[in-house]
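Hey, I was hoping to borrow your eyes for a little while. There's a protein on my desk that I can't quite get my head around. The fold is given in discrete form, as structure tokens running alongside the sequence. I'd be grateful if you could look everything over and explain what you see. Here's the protein in full, and shout if anything looks odd to you:
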Amino acid sequence: MIRLGSNSPTRALILNNFGIEFTQNGGSFDEDSIQTTNPKSFCYEATRGKFNELYSKYGVEDMPLLVSDSVVTSHGELLRKAKDENDARRMLELQSGSETSVITCMIYKSKTKELIDISITTYEFEKFDKIHLEEYIKSGECFGKAGAIMVEGFCKPYIKNVIGYESTAMGLCAQKLIPFLEE
């Protein structure tokens, strides 16, 4: 049993899909306090901030702690969560017919092990259908997602090529976590 330091239903789904038992306790770290616009640095700083907050609250005596964060980058631009429909549209149009990378950082700590990992999954997308794009934005599914993308949903039919793990793009690289889990 591990403690997932995240309120993300997608990260919970990943752990469930990989058969990892967990309890879920997110925090309230303010990502807006991060100054860098470098995608990898931002992702690490957000994960470290969330980890420090939850580690000081829960520690790892009762169970290991896992914290993760993701950002999206396309054309060198850091794409965070969409603020509104126009922001979502702008980010999705930037990625349409282009290359997009999802950067996920995770920190796992137990009493005896610590893993800090930054993984990247890169997608090459076909052009997004404009009607489908508008339906996706209106559905609200794009909100709460880095870069407004959902590779397991809206973006799936537009994937031309992928390098990396889908779990990384969904917010948690389970394949790298599993070897560190305690028996």
Remarks:
- The helical segments are 9-17, 39-58, 85-95, 130-139, 166-170, 174-177.
- The chain has a mean pLDDT of 95.
- Residues 142 and 149 are 6 Å apart (CA to CA).
- The chain is about 30% helix and 25% strand.
